[in-house]
Amino acid sequence: MGTERVKNAAVAALVAATLAGGVLMLVTEEHDAPPPAPGPAARARAAAVAGAPASRAELDALIRDRTRWLRAHPGDEESWAALGTAYAERGAWWADWAALARAESALNRSLRERPAAAGNTEALLGLAVLAGARQDFATARDAAVRAQQQRPRRWTVYRALIDAQSGVGAYKAVHGALDRLTALYQGSQSRALAAQVYRERGWREDASANAYDAVAAAAGTTERAVALRRLGDLAWERGEPREAVAGYDAALRLAPELHPARAGRARALAALGRTDAALAEYRAALTRFPLPEYALEAGELYESLGRHEEAEESYAAVLETADRAERYGVDQTLTRGRYEADHGDPDEAVRLLTDAWEAGRRSTQIADGLGWALYRAGRADEALPYAKRATKEGLRSPLFAYHRGQIERSLGLYGSARRNIGTALRVNPFFSPLLVPPARSALASLGEPPGGGPRRMTGREALYPAGRGRQGAAGSRWWGSGGAR
């Protein structure tokens, strides 16, 4: 490429950008060349260098810039990798599924120019991005591991590993990758990733502290908006909808296109009883970003309000948008499974989620979904181990706790059922407009635990005459071998 390639390496090295939660990250740090002319492409480069999110306009500017460059320099494997990864990010972030095919084409071209075995780390990370966008986390992990072997001191490699390992449920590996990442890099995005990992582990205070640090350290507008949206998510999960709305509002003022913040705002508004405003937010999100999970949430809100015709329209949209995503290779197993379990064919949900589990996709979300699908299909005994796994990995999800509690209730494990359904309502008393009423009803039907405490608690129960200190022992599995132990 000669001198011209070196002079343009600053944009070419926008480079091996990698997507993790919708961010553009620089993975080729060694080039030293003048930045592009001021404008969106330059801002995208600055965001990439910091490992920070780029706006859609900035990302599109990068795509245009690399496309122009490659017309004249078709042998530049780094620019093909940058272009492919940028397309993958656009597909994942903006539900532009057609962009994923362009991403695959560009990344394959990069690998033809320079094979992975010859050290094309940028293309490997681009493949990890693409596979993650398609929810193919096993492939994403394989690509990220190969990239790590080539460049073990590049921090963005560990970001790709964290996302992929989370997707397959390898949570110990996630923590190891975070330790390596934080040893290499201490910036805003390191704090954001720590918040994500600590949330999955159930360490809410640590997650919140790191999320606030990420906001304080954010440099660009979009980076700050994404960090504020994360604060909104954490507030929502704590059952604090007013604080969540404040976080989402702050994020949307900076980045009105940030659709996860808009959908989060809809959830929080529904919890506050502002259902018309919540439905308007769902419609706004779905108009530009037709994601199946948003259609499912909107349908359940409509159903909770008794607006069944509109609920059915939303449920139909779940299937339509999932079909469209799948035509471009985006796996929709989890959303389809949740839809079928509660609103369609539970046996189909079991089939879908069992296939995912057996293929190695063993995240807490898949475990919970499979357990609930088995329960809804009348197979509660088989469901319980999956529900237990989902609640024991660390993530403090009220939905998971509710699902486990209802499964246990059906099996007569009343003490454990009472504890888990109660936990769901304590963690977030608004966790689902459709499920909170049955959760309250189930908890009321279970009543208060009988007095006297469980047997074999102290080892001194034999000192008491029969019937004293063991009230309620007869006829209740809560006492003894049931769920209270």
Automatic annotation (TrEMBL):
Keyword Kinase: no
SMART domains recorded: TPR
TPR repeats (start-end): 225-258
Chain intervals with Low complexity compositional bias: 466-479
InterPro entries per the UniProt record, alphabetical: TPR-like_helical_dom_sf, TPR_rpt
Keywords, sorted A to Z: TPR repeat
Sequence segments annotated as region (Disordered): 445-485
Descriptive protein name: Secreted protein
Organism: Streptomyces clavuligerus
